[in-house]
Design a protein that fits this description.
The chain is 28% helix and 25% strand. It is of the alpha+beta class and 187 residues long. It has two domains: 95 residues, Glycoprotein, Type 4 Pilin, CATH 3.30.700; 71 residues, Dna Ligase, domain 1. Strands 2-1-3-8 form a four-stranded antiparallel beta sheet, covered by helices on one side. A four-stranded antiparallel beta sheet has the order 4-7-5-6, covered by helices on one side. The chain is globular and about 50 Å long. The protein starts with 6 loop residues before the first helix and ends in a 6-residue tail after the last strand. The relative contact order is 0.17.
Amino acid sequence: MPTTDPLGPVLLAQARKAIADALDQPAPTPADHPQLKERGASFVTLTINGELRGCIGSLNAHRALGEDVRENALAAALRDPRFPPLSAREFGQVRVEVSLLSEPEFMEFSDEADALAQLVPGRDGVIFFNGCQKATFLPQVWDQLPDPRDFMAALKRKARLPADFWGPNVMLARYQVQKWHEGSDTE
């Protein structure tokens, strides 16, 4: 159901404006919203023709939401190590998505099967920890990996661990997102 709260469009405009300014491209000045000054954690995902072009974010609310979105937009566009920096030529083709994260909650589980049984595909974003190794998948990743075993295996590979790894130091936290992408209502 569409929302009347303008936060989503404001966050999208903040992200697009930050990238536009860095690439010396025109973009409208975003409107203000009171929540921009509150601490918030966000991820900014960029796509071109439906293909990932950059995704960087914050797992914890450590700065004002407006600053977080702007910094993550710049990082997704210019510093995602998986991609070359976004070019001015690509700017008009890129679509922006902003995800606003809830506070992560650590999970209690007896083993991997128990942890997997607790996850809600499509709703839960997951942070995987094992010592210094850490990786996360936003809830949107369930669209490509709907089976919890496949989702967790890919998350472990992202943390540079074998897909079948499990150990006594594994910790998991989950979070939810409210997301917006250009050309749509909130989801």
